[in-house]
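Please check this:
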Amino acid sequence: MKIVLAYSGGLDTSVALRWLKENHDAEVIAFCANLGQPEDFQAIREKALASGACKVIIEDLREEYLRDYVFPALRAGALYERRYTMAAPLGRPLIARHLVRIAHAEGAEAVAHGSTGKGNDQVRFYAGVVAHDPALRVLAPCAEWELKSRDEELAYAQRFGIPVSATADSPFSMDGSLWGTSTECGVIDDFRARLPRTAYQLTTDPQEAPDTPAHVAIGFERGVPVSLDGQRLAPMELVRRLTDLGGRHGVGRVDMVENSLMGIKNRALYESPAGAILHFAHRELEDLTIDCDTLHCKAELALKYSELVYRGQWWSPLRKALDAFVEASQAHVNGSIALRLYKGGIVVEGRETADALFDYGLTAHDGADRFDHPAGIGFAYVWSLPQRIRAKLRGPASEL
């Protein structure tokens, strides 16, 4: 039997590789997708081979990740439960698609991943694989094996000489990409616990951030970020610079209790400096350039879009249909938003766009005011007719 394992080099996938080899009498191909995580990929290759992999495939998917997954979600305004930029959920459908491609190329009968049975990722991987090839087996060692805790996983790794970075003293499960990181397990599992400094990967404690704020202007074309301070940049470089800048100033930390796909409330720590900055700037530009009805409808659909991503339904017809709406909504989201970053906060300093739906003569409260104020009286009369009729025929809405 031949299995392609989505391999990160962390504790779960390192143990899973050996476990699959031992329990399925299989040849295991380790596939590591480079999404911009801060890893030594040569070390990952050596670790996979030392753990029993018959072959290691490492592919650079960073540009595809940002272009085809992250930026569409950014344009949609998709933040799960209003805060989570979903770095991991956006990467899983991409990895799943390449798992299937590699399985076909290598003649594998199955693919595998390192997610637990109660985790969100096991559904994302499964759904992503079967959307492309329902005949492939999808194995989830962490949901099948006899190891009941991370301590037992660590003992298993030690028994087989598998090198892992997690220890009993630092048992965090950390996942990362260009778009952000997630940290789970250990004291994070307790919503009452105060998090140690070692739980953070990208961001400075806001209290220890520089006393001098940073300033940055982000340029957008059709809702896609294309420049910083007037300098046109490729997606990877733009996101990298914002990650470094925002992380240095403590921007992008999210410590939240979320509603997982399995119906469990769990605590997780997320860091996405670039995501926080770009979502903030994008919303500001949309407020200027999209009409009220479309903007409000888009906000409602953003919730659905984020749920689809989070719940592993990236390849659903609905997500593709929502992308068509988003594409139309972004036609005039062009311009630049200037921001100030200071000790974890983001503040608007300036807005520039040739596509603003903004008439100063209608909004001004000075001599430039050109609004027809008497017309407003008639508007108020017509707008309130339903309340007027109800009160006349059935009495006041409430007792005074």
Observations:
- The longest strand covers residues 27-34.
- The mean pLDDT is 94.
- The chain has two domains: 2-62+86-167, 176-352.
